[in-house]
Specification:
With 155 residues, the protein is of the alpha+beta class. The chain contains five helices and seven strands.
Length: 155
């Protein structure tokens, strides 16, 4: 599904409180989990040893790192909304709250539901807070729930 189109940065505030359509599904493969482990040096066996994880972990198999799921927020936001004009640059301004209510099994699909919580405008920048729920069809609970702050600099 194409991202929801927002005309320009000046019109972002009118979408405050809006939940945008869910993104398309994205598969978190064992290979991607391995590459994330290589990049972050987080090599815990629950992520990298599927046989042991199936035998010994409460998850019944290998699972993605919570931070891997979290790192996909920028991918999901880009696929949830597109602001057509008025932005010179945007930066990750931080997170207010992050939780990982359920694990993401290797090979699972995930997608995101994005809600624009608030928009604070100033002459130099626009701060937006997004509530993002990452979900998988294999769990009733979301995999990740995060309140993410983006700072947009106007053109």
């Amino acid at each position: 599904m194409p991202p929801f189109e927002i005309e320009n940065l000046n019109s972002l505030k009118q979408w405050e409180g809006r939940e945008f359509p869910a993104t398309d599904w994205f598969v978190l493969t064992q290979d991607r989990i391995q590459k994330f482990a290589d990049a972050t040096e987080d090599r815990q066996w629950i992520h990298l040893d599927p046989a042991r994880a199936q035998r010994e972990s409460p998850f019944g198999g290998s699972v993605a790192h919570g931070f891997l799921t979290l790192s996909l927020l920028s991918y999901f936001l880009k696929h949830a909304i597109h602001i057509r004009s008025g932005i010179a640059m945007s930066v990750n301004y931080g997170l207010n709250k992050v939780r990982f209510p359920s694990a993401v099994h290797a090979g699972s699909q995930v997608r995101a539901r994005v809600t624009l919580l608030s928009v604070q405008e100033s002459p130099e920048f626009v701060d937006a807070a997004f509530l993002i729920h990452v979900e998988s069809p294999s769990s009733d609970k979301p995999c990740c729930v995060a309140e993410w702050l983006i700072r947009y600099y106007p053109q």
